[in-house]
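Re: your question about CubicO group peptidase (Beta-lactamase class C family)

S., sorry for the slow reply, the queue was backed up all week. Below is exactly what I fed in.
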Amino acid sequence: MAGLLEDFVRADRERGLGTYGIHVHSDGRPPVEHRFRPDERVDLRSVAKTFTAVALGMAEAEGRLGLDDRLLDHLPELRGLAADGFEAVTLRQLTTMTSGTGHQWFAHQRIDAPDLLAEIVAARMEAAPGTRFRYTGSGPYAVGRVIARVSGADLREFLTPRLFRPLGLHDPAWHACPLGFPFGESGLHLTTGELARFARLLLDDGEWAGRRILPDGWVGRMTGESVGTGGIGHGPAYEHGYGLGVWLERDGAYRMDGAYGQYAIVDPRRRAAVTVTAHSERDGDLLTAVHDLVLARLD
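Result:
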């Protein structure tokens, strides 16, 4: 794979794509990577949603909850605050952005409510649960709160022995709300190389160094149990569906996707994974460059 990244590196410099680092894994070949700066930990933005979805799958495999459990069944003290219709909202719908809630929140926004979860539960419903896709950070945050309730550990604590430590991701920071719960939807900090390990774990169906880390079958469910996203207005890259914490692409590929160019694209057909961190004001152009100048050349 010598020279694989030459055109991508040139494009980044000529177009000002803002890449920090890129890592390419392709089965049977040595990994290829390029650093535009030292490989320091950065906020992965919405890539964190995939980690939260994985935590959900692990909690389900341990018998602590089910994806089709209703949130309020695990947090009954919030029933009195819930908006009409919210009582039917499930953990699956919160993960696939189909809860129907009108609550719109992302981690860069200040939290003024004493309890963000109570605010989410009380927000007016805009659609029946399961009938409409609307991208928001509210759902993954709420899922993280349920995992904390059923396990006694917040998201970061829950994933440390189950995922972070086995992958060699030492003590990653995860920004938290005023009550101390990780945001779930954003705020997780890893290097390009560290995120690449997670992408390879997904490519290898949840196994790492001969050891099963993720529940058997979970990776397939992440893409197989998806919802439609056609017509949402985010652009062509977001029209192929959304699964359990991942955006679907053509030909069976899927990606983790965070603002300003945090990407990890897993392509089972090519048996490859490409990971990028960046601070890009042209993240759509960056994603196109990754596809055209890197992934397409692995055929």
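The longest strand covers residues 19-26. The first helix runs from residue 6 to 15.

Happy to talk it through on Thursday.
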